[in-house]
Input
Amino acid sequence: MRTALASQIHEQSFSAATSAAGATNFVPLTSLTPEARSQVFVSDIFAHTELMAAPVFDAAYERTRPNLKVQDGCDNRCSFCVIPYVRGQSRSLRLEEVIREVETLVASGFREVVISGINLGRWGRDFDPPLRFEDLVWTILEKTSLQKLRISSVEPMDWSDDLIQLIAGSPRIAKHAHLPMQSGSDRVLRRMHRKYRPWHYCEKIEKIRAAMPGAAIGADVMVGFPSETNSEFEETRHLIEELPFTYLHVFTYSARPGTPAATMPNQVPMRVARERNRTLRELAAEKKLEFQRSFLGKTVDAITLNVFDGEHTEALTDNYLKLRLAGKHDPNHWVTARVEYVSGGALLGYLEA
Output
């Protein structure tokens, strides 16, 4: 058996595989046995121009937070990324299909839905006439009774003023913004073929923080990109220090065969890249703790997930903080809690009477 993304990258290596498991809709492995399946034709992904609906349920939180993929593929050509070559051009789930899927999830009892995509902010640009991502968000609010919509990662330049104000103004949208940064160095961003400069990125973050003072703001950051110098890394570290991030996903660069970055000169030694990764993860931990402590003594809204240790219930706040509630509580309920402590990477609190 093989997974779809790996087999698209390394087609010859998987030529003898008997089946493929896709990344859009996970299925039980037993259904892939010879007794449970028949042969199917797998078509060229670059010929696909439509996206089929297929909600993905996180195994840990399958009763609370389904993930609805509304966009796939990417028209960008970042020099380090293999996704455009294996997922094809950007394509969007039709608006009516999105609404139908959200309504189905609501009817099934879900109170929060996460919408996602490879390049989510480009949703609707492939339609004729094109639509904006803001149109999708607004229509979900207008046409469904979903209690809480959470938006996953959106590229910096797709955070329009209209989108920021829409999220800030609706209590039905989680106050959570994730903007991939990759680097705080202008020179590194140019080598990466990213479409923004550090000052563009800072402007977006500042607008989001001004509109949503309590929002979670996160980013993806890559260290060890080819030719990244100490001074370029320091530019990234300094920018992270200055911006109001509440969490970071820090990655060490790894060459992907077939991408322009894989053949760039001056590959950074792994020991150097790992040390830079450690530095940024420590900085991220400091920022996360500072954000968590800012809620001590305050009330927060959260959706209950599952019983954590027999005595506490794990929950996730509107602004993407892990919360542990005293006592056992049923999953998939929005609650209001008062935060009393910060411990073990999570808030600890009690339900408001």
